[in-house]
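User: My instructor asked us to take a sequence, write out its structure as tokens, and then describe one feature of it. I'm not sure where to start. Here is the sequence I was given:
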Amino acid sequence: MPTFSAPDGTLLAYHESGSGPGAPLLCLPGGPMRDSAYLEDLDGLAGRRVVRLDLRGTGASEAPADPGSYRCDRLVGDVEALRVHLGLDEVDLLGHSAGANLAALYLTRHAERVRRLVLVTPGPAAAGLVPAPEERLAAARLRAGEPWFAEAYAALEEMAAGRGTEAVFAKVMPFFHGTWDDAAREREAATARQRNAEAAAVYGGEGAYDPAATRAVFAEFGRPVLVLAGEGDANTPPPTAAAYAELFPAARFEVLKGGGHFPWHDDAEWFAGHVTEFLDA
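Assistant: Let's start with the prediction itself. The structure tokens for your sequence are:
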């Protein structure tokens, strides 16, 4: 397992696969603070070199001495240390879900190191965007014909009204997946095992984000950006993802019909096709 040292000495691990010309694709996991193993289906994506980072305290990476270093803005140094360790002048950067917040903050400090940016069902907190409750509910209603819909939708209504609990949140998980089948249930069950709950509680803590400063950098970032959304994703509904894309001067926005929060599981060909075309353009 390849490793490198973070600026504070924490030993971090990463996973590397594939090869090919051009900048490697550096993938940042969501969760927040989830083991990058759930992104292993992206290994070798687009016939190129793919690097997945295990964020500190997740996967094969060490836990830091200072738990405060789990905060998203403080993780930027880890991403930059990995770039330096790999000896790369530029990377193509992919952030999924909450990992898009880390990608955004990396961009604010090291825009010159990002050749192309891919944001997959992005968590929008770093940009100061908050999905409207009706956006979430509208995405969920596309699944009204499913046998589990009534219970899950009632739970989502509770969350939209600000009455969400951990138990209620667990019931809305079908809305994160384009197909709520046995494979999706198994992937969802793995989340608890792969996610560092202590780190997740710190990740977006007070002081992590400066939306105004982040938006200002986005507005000046003229390199290509791709934002991918799932039509039925109640976590990052398409209107929120579209608003995110509009913050960049050179962004493409694509929506997977019937897709959820993990679009590569819903239509691997669609996902790989869009990412490959974008990176190779």
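For the description part of your assignment, you could build on this observation: The CA atoms of residues 72 and 204 lie 6 Å apart. Try explaining in your own words what that tells you about the chain.
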